[in-house]
Design a protein that fits this description.
With about 150 residues, this protein is mostly helical. The chain contains four helices and four strands; from the N terminus they run βββααααβ. Helices cover about 60% and strands about 10% of the residues.
């Protein structure tokens, strides 16, 4: 804590300085955290659209693809809609800052990796792309997800 002195009788006024939670660098990881939030928002939008299309049984899905654990495309669509809503909440939480947003984002990205791998029979290249993006999101949040806070 620093002090500030005034003219006249010596009076010390405490001045707050900025520190960082979890040892995160001050400006170094801002782009990674922003990237994580943006990717969650995009993924949420795509998952909700994909889920609506699956519930409506659209024709752009691979015919006869067998999904792991869940064989019904309609059920898989509702799961995608729910996961899209979860990803959107993760994006909002990351943008708000704080430790909860960081850990919630890491947890949602980890589930996203599993979710992408489970849909691999339908779209293998798309699933591997999602896995790569989710791993980058996990890296960004784990390395630079700390929020600046005032220290006394």
């Amino acid at each position: 804590m620093s002090t500030l002195t005034t003219n006249g009788p010596r009076t010390e006024i405490p001045v707050k300085t900025t520190g960082y939670v979890a040892g995160a660098p001050s400006q170094e990881g801002v782009g990674w955290v922003l990237f994580a939030g943006i990717m969650f928002a995009i993924a949420a939008t795509l998952n909700i659209i994909w889920g609506i299309a699956a519930v409506a049984e659209s024709s752009f899905f691979v015919a006869g693809a067998a999904y792991i654990l869940i064989a019904d495309l309609t059920t898989w669509g509702w799961i995608a809609i729910g996961f899209g809503a979860l990803e959107f909440l993760a994006a909002l939480s990351i943008w708000r800052g704080g430790a909860f947003g960081r850990w919630f984002g890491i947890a949602v990205a980890s589930v996203g990796v599993v979710f992408a791998l489970m849909s691999m029979p339908a779209y293998p290249l798309w699933s591997l792309t999602l896995v790569a993006i989710e791993v980058l999101v996990i890296y960004g949040l784990a390395t630079y997800g700390g929020k600046p806070e005032l220290t006394a």
